[in-house]
Amino acid sequence: MSAPAVEHLDVAIIGAGISGIGAARYVKTHLPAKTFAVLEARAASGGTWDLFRYPGIRSDSDLHTFGYEFKPWRDKQAIADAPRILNYLREAVAENGLDAHIRYHRKVTAASWSSVTARWTLDVEHVDTGEQVHLSAGWVFVASGYYRYDEGFTPRFPGREQFTGTVVHPQHWPDDLDYTGKKVLVIGSGATAVTLVPAMADTAAHVTMLQRTPSYIMPIPREDALANAMRRILGEDLAYRLVRRKNITRGRLVWQFCQRYPKLARRLIRRVNISQLPAGYSVDEHFNPPYDPWDQRLCAVPDGDLFRAIRDGQATIVTDTIDTFTATGVRLNSGRELHADIIVTATGLNVQAFGGIRLTVDGEPVHLPDTVAYKGMMLSGVPNLAYAIGYTNSSWTLKIGLLCEHFCRLLAHMQTHGYDICRPEVTDPAMPTRPFLDFAAGYIQRAIDHLPRQGDRMPWLTSMDYRGDVTLLRTGAVAAPELRFARAVATSEVAS
Q1: CA dihedral over 402, 403, 406, 412, signed as positive or negative
Q2: DSSP assignment string, 135-173
Q3: Coiled-coil ranges per the record (predicted)?
Q4: Which of 120, 328, 457, 496 is the most buried (most CB within 10 A)?
């Protein structure tokens, strides 16, 4: 009995979150003759915005830049909550006819490349039934994000088993968790923590944010008054384009200012913090990070909600380290005890490159630290594979849109010239390399040795500059000396 035929796709997109939905729309629009499918391990689209359910979850970038270039953001909230973002993403799916292309409960566990056939073979598990199937694809576009969906990061806390209350990680928020009138302790100081504290403060008896290291925190308006006025005057589409351009420029200038004048930026942020906090508040203890602004992301608090919770006495920040959990809370290394009914470990993510997929090329396993990122979207020595990693210093989706455009241009170039294979190759073996992301956040640093590298020159740099990427990815040439193109039947490759 012959084996069943393996379905073949021109493009297999892995992940139906904000990156995968965007990639699918670009492929369908710019490469209408290509067959593609979006393979999503979960039961619904939306990625992060469907997974996280903790109180107050929202964006920390404005939706005029976090939204897609091809779909205006029409809501009055510029810093939007998760349900609004999820609705926007699912509108994008419906409006672009992508529903029929998304296959849910499909987890890709391995991908094997054959240079003989110029195809990837994907091992796909049906999450519900455990059934294993195979697909083949000319290209794989990995849009699974950068962290594990099934497990958040929680440090080992001494004495945790002694605590008699409830411990919860934001990534696994229980639907039935009732914190009304309870004392809540949130461990962490990043974007998740500063979102949770004011969101819970109105209902809880009191919320304490325990941080080992402060973060830079700045108030921003939840609604963009100028954007909303422009929408009324100019209409949705034109207003969106103009506001998007304004916000891209503003974000870039703020980042550049912080990089060039870190001491002045620190002083300005401190002055804003003082204006938002009660008189005599210990700003230098709780809002004075040991690193410079934008070495890690600045935490945005819409309408200053965190500061309001502190002023109203609903929330407290404590800067200290944990000695041990106790039956009623935690004891700090200073000797102070913090009592809690509920402890929230807002301690971050577990980075997982390429969705944890095992990659092999012609039978050889791909060891990611041995690869170098090409244009921030491909890997040296790995043919016909692209990935989506957004900006760390700006809205994630700004980079994704440019990557998707370039990806489509690359496939069109290959089709025009009759190529089946495209593989980046480092032309200078002596080129120095450094970590894939120049970013000091703990979740990146914990995984840095397991990620690809980047070089010291283009196109081997992982760019975080939108304006430069517009030139590189949108208007720059697709063919380059570092890209090797070939036909499936050829015995030798041809440099472009």
Answers
A1: negative
A2: EEEEEEEE-S-SEEEEEE-----TTGGG--SEEE-GGG-
A3: none
A4: 120
Whole-angstrom distance, CA of residue 445 vs CA of residue 438: 9
H helices present in 290-395, as ranges: 305-311
Distance of alpha carbon 332 from alpha carbon 320, whole angstroms: 7
> Residue 194, SS3?
helix
User: Does a cis peptide bond (omega within 30 degrees of 0) precede residue 452?
Assistant: no
Q: Which residues of 255-276 are buried (b: 16+ CB within 10 A; e: fewer)?
A: beebeeeeeebbeebeebbeeb
Candidate from 226-230, 247-251, 291-295, 423-427 with smallest mean pLDDT: 291-295
Distance CA 208, CA 316 (A): 5
Q: For residues 85 and 75, what is the distance between their CA atoms, to the nearest angstrom?
A: 10
CATH topology of domain 7-149+350-495: FAD/NAD(P)-binding domain (3.50.50)
3-state secondary structure 437-463: CCCCCHHHHCCHHHCCEECCCCCCCCC
Domain ranges of the chain: 7-149+350-495, 154-347
- CATH architecture assigned to 154-347: 3-Layer(bba) Sandwich (3.50)
Cross-strand partners of 406: none
Q: What is the mean pLDDT of residues 37-41?
A: 97
Sign of the C-alpha dihedral computed for residues 272, 276, 280 and 284 taken in this order:
negative
- What gap in Å lies between CA 462 and CA 451, rounded to an integer? 12
Which helix (H) or strand (E) is 93 found in, with range?
Answer: helix 82-95
The two three-digit tokens of residue 477, written as one number: 């040439």
* CB neighbour burial string for 11-45, b if at least 16 within 10 angstroms, e if fewer: bbbbbbbbbbbbbbbbbbeebeebebbbbbbbeeb
248 CA to centre of own chain: 18
Long-range contacts, 225-233 (Cβ 8 Å, 24+): 227/64, 227/78, 228/76, 231/74
- List, for residues 445-481, the tens digit of each pLDDT value: 676 778 899 999 999 988 888 998 999 999 999 999 9
CA separation for the pair 307, 310 (Å, rounded): 5
CB 385 within 8 A of CB 140: yes
β-strands 385-387, 102-103 pairing: unpaired
Residue 69: CA atoms inside 13 Å, Cβ hemisphere, count? 15
The closest alpha carbon to 72, from 278, 284, 287, 236, belongs to 236
Higher per-residue pLDDT: 456 or 28? 28
Q: What is the pTM of this model?
A: 0.93
Q: What is the DSSP letter of 58?
A: B
How many whole angstroms separate alpha carbon 477 and alpha carbon 376?
15
Q: What is the mean pLDDT of the chain?
A: 92
